[in-house]
Amino acid sequence: MSLLEVRELHKSFGRGADEIPAVRGVDLELAPGETLGLVGESGCGKTTLGRMIVGLSAPTSGQILFGGEDVAGRLHEPRYRSRVQMVFQHPQSSLNPRFRVSTTLSEPARLLASESAGASSSESIRETLRLVGLGEEYLSRRSGQLSGGQQQRVAIARALMSAPDLIVLDEPTSSLDQSIRSRIISLLKDIQKSNSVSYLFISHDLSTVRRIAHRVAVMYLGRIVEISETNQLFDDPKHPYTKALLSAVPTLDPKKDTERIILEGETPNPTQLPTGCSFQDRCSLVHEACRTQSPSLANLGSSRQVECFAVQ
Question: Residue 280: which residues within 8 A CB-CB, separation 6 or more?
């Protein structure tokens, strides 16, 4: 059984003529111990989707099933919040500068963990800190006394304090330099092996996503347009938008064709989406059905789904 299922999830902001659809009928599944990468241009709805899953933003409609149970109306309940945590893009903004690391890590245990876990929270804090590669000497430090990489380790430790089953990671390495980024990715993979935690890894950095994700979902204008196993997607992308995204990824392989695909046209105004496929004005494969009908995700083999008439 899937750990997380998202069915026909919608999120709009504003009302009437000013209503902006940020997430439009998204379907996703995430298995226990799996990492699902979520990629797409800025403004495509990735972060909004992640915030809905952790309960920081209420869905307009749709279902969020966790362990087979619909929790869309109960996302703020401590029982759910303890099992689903989030790591934000900028640790310096998400950590309280007045708190010492010990206080930062004790808050989730106090608010969300069980009474028995709370009784041993001091030991849990030291254990979790060791898990993210930091010693006990960091407990007395405030976030301003830490490097960017150390801050993100503390943010990851905070997410782990309630022993979650799922962590949503929203651009967790984008503010870090390359060497620290590599260490954080290795750290996350080690934690996953030891704790069997699942990740929804939101990023625009496709090279990083390839290193950590088991599967990748590609998002465009609030819709998932392709889902596939990671190597399959990178080696043989099907949707025209996925091909354009991956063409921008640098490669060191001289035998690989690195011709950049430049999309023509502009992203449609989300308040005035065209009839049919929302990618039609930027697509080289567009045909008549794309102008009149909205495609849906269809199976393309056993491990891939694509939302495109031209490849179905």
Answer: 274, 286, 290, 291
Tokens of 293: 């009908």
Look over the chain and give the mean of its residue pLDDT values, rounded to a whole number.
90
pTM, full prediction: 0.93
Rounded Cα distance between 209 and 86, Å, is 17
Tokens 């990489």 — which residue? 149
Dihedral angle over CA of 2, 302, 291, 13, nearest 10: 10
* Percent of all residues in the chain with a pLDDT value above 70, rounded to a whole number: 95
Distance CA 229, CA 211 (A): 12
Per the CB < 8 A criterion, the answer to whether 218 and 225 are in contact is: yes
CA distance 175 to 146: 14
Q: How many angstroms separate the first and last alpha carbons of the chain? A: 27
Quote the tokens at residue 141: 């430090």
Average of per-residue pLDDT across 4-28: 94
pLDDT of residue 118: 44
**How many CA atoms, within 13 angstroms, populate the side-chain half-sphere of residue 161?**
30
pLDDT score of 109 more than 80: no
